[in-house]
Write a structure and sequence with these properties.
58% of the residues lie in helices and 0% in strands. The chain has 99 residues and is mostly helical. Helix 1 packs antiparallel against helix 2. The two termini are 27 Å apart.
């Protein structure tokens, strides 16, 4: 809804840029479903040019299982805490942005 209001306001001043921005919004809206489809429902396929025989049946690549993720590092935790804290503070006290 906010994008629509911005586009309406931009249309009055810059119609060409408003059309380009609208196309950008459409492309942005179409990407998440396409990306989710590629990530969640892709078929396991061998790498191109790979001439080796398939791995053993108990190999994780054959079961389409991903390796576990590494635990996050301390700098990543600090960044997450800062982002979460900032989001909470601004969400609870939005007037802080107007000071």
């Amino acid at each position: 809804m906010a994008e629509m209001q911005v586009l309406i306001g931009a249309w009055q001043a810059f119609p060409t840029l408003a059309v380009l921005a609208g196309l950008g919004i459409l492309v942005t809206c179409l990407q998440p479903p396409r990306l989710a489809k590629r990530i969640l429902w892709r078929a396991a396929r061998p790498e191109r040019g790979h001439s080796c025989p398939p791995a053993a049946p108990d190999h994780p690549a054959d079961r389409n299982v991903r390796a576990p993720l590494e635990p996050i590092s301390t700098p990543e935790r600090i960044g997450a805490v800062i982002l979460i804290g900032t989001s909470l503070v601004i969400g609870l006290w939005p007037r802080l942005l107007w000071i």
